Amino acid sequence: MAEFIALIPAAGSGSRMGEDLPKQYRLLAGKPMIYHALHTLCSTERIGTVCVVLAPDDTEWKRYDWSEFVGKIKVLNCGGATRAESVTNGLKALHAANHVQDHDWILVHDAARPGLSHALVERLLDQLTDDEVGGLLAVPLADTLKRADKAGRVQRTESREYLWQAQTPQMFRTKLLLEALGKAHAGITDDASAVEALGYSPKLVMGDAYNFKVTYPQDLKLAELILQERIATR
What is the pTM for the complete model shown? Predict the structure, then answer.
C-alpha cells in the first residue's frame, strides 16, 4: 500500500524579504514560519513522515524546539541551490535509505505557506489518492490580468478564463516526480511544471486564499492575522 510522505524544501535564503534571516525562520504567531506548515502536516494522520530539506550549512534549525514532532519528522541537510534541487536531493536521500518506494505519494509543500489547513490537505489526499497522475492545490484567478510592454504600459488585457494560481502541496508518485525533476529545465519553479513537461496533465484541486506564499515583508502582517485566528480556535 502506498504511503503519504510530505516534503518541505527549506534551503532557501528568502532574499526578497530583504533580511539575512532565512524566511522560513521569521517569527509568525510566536513560532518560526516553517513551524505552522509542519504542525498541519505532522498532525494529519494519513501522512506517515514529514521531511524537511535544509541547506547543508543551516545553523538556525537547532535554535528551536521541534520535540513535539519527534517520531514523524525527518530532517535532511542536503538542500540545493534551487527548489527543484532540494526536492530531488531529498527524494534521493530517502530512496537511498529505503524510506520511500517508487509508488509512494510525495506531497511537496512550500515552507513559506504557513496558512495550509488540515481541510486542504485532506481534500488533496481524497481527490488524488486514486488519480493516475497526481496534482496540486490551486485557486482560479480572480483579478483582471494586464500584459505590459517594456515601458511598463498596458499592452493588452489577458483573459483569465481557465487560469489558476498554483499552490502547494503538490502531490505526485516518487518515481514520476524524480523522473520529471531530473529532466526539468533550469528555470522550473514548481513540481507540477516538471510533470507537465513529460506530457502529463496534473489535476487541479481547489485551494483557498489563506494558503498564500509569504514572499514580501507586507505579507507577514496578513499571515500573522490568519494564524492568530486559527490558533485561537484550536
Answer: 0.94
